[in-house]
Amino acid sequence: MRKGYSFYVNNKLRLFRLSKNMNFAKFNHVHKTGVKQIDDEHEHLIDMINELILSFNHDNEISTAQEILSRLENYANYHFENEEKYLKKVNYKHFEEHKEDHNNFRIKIKDLKKRHSNGDQGIAHKILNFLGDWIHNCQLADNLSQN
Ligand SMILES: [Fe+2]
Predict the structure, then answer these.
(1) Is the pLDDT of residue 28 over 80?
(2) Which domain holds residue 63?
(3) Is the pLDDT of residue 45 over 60?
(4) Ligand 1 mean position, distance from CA 76 (Å)
(5) How far away, in angstroms, is 28 Cα from ligand 1 center?
(6) Does 4 score more than 60 pLDDT?
(7) Could you tell me which residue, 100 or 32, shows the higher pLDDT?
(8) Which one has a higher pLDDT value, 13 or 49?
């Protein structure tokens, strides 16, 4: 792991329980919603994070970043739709707020894609930081347990 990816090192992300060599992020059980489909889909996000991390070791982070960005766009389409459907069904109190978060996610991915096509060399790091913050700030599991 290169220096500078303090995103894992400082572990402000409760979600990530790191292995000893800090190579992989794992889904922390405290962030599980208990809804299988949603939790499974959230695991996909963790998978993408791990692929990015792996790409640093293989020096193919720029091409991996490109692929991950397309997958994130796709992810936003199906996952947010599934999640919003569920949240509506259970009358989620913070629904509008959460929908807004989803929209901001889409906007951010678009922005990252633009940066990537403009040749931003630090793009993988930026994606990683964004996803890390996104997961860190997500209150869904907490809120759902009190809904
Ligand atoms: Fe989600």
Answers:
(1) no
(2) 6-145
(3) yes
(4) 9
(5) 14
(6) no
(7) 100
(8) 49
- Between the CA of 119 and the centroid of ligand 1 the distance, in Å, is 29
CATH number for the domain harbouring residue 43: 1.20.120.50
Give the CA distances from residue 67 to residues 12, 54, 94, 107, 132, in Å, rounded to whole numbers and listed in that order: 27, 14, 32, 17, 18
pLDDT tens column, 59-104: 899 999 999 999 999 999 999 999 999 999 999 999 999 999 999 9
For residue 1, being part of any structural domain is answered with: no
Q: How far is the CA of 120 from the centre of ligand 1 (A)?
A: 27
CA–centroid distance, residue 57 to ligand 1 (Å): 28
Amino acid at 139: Q
Name the more confident of 110 and 30.
110
How many distinct structural domains can be found in the chain?
A: 1
Query: Quick check: is 87 in a domain?
Result: yes
Cα distances from 1 to residues 4, 5, 8, 59, in angstroms, run: 9, 8, 10, 11
Q: What is the 83 CA–ligand 1 centroid distance (Å)?
A: 6
- 27 - beta bridge partners? 16
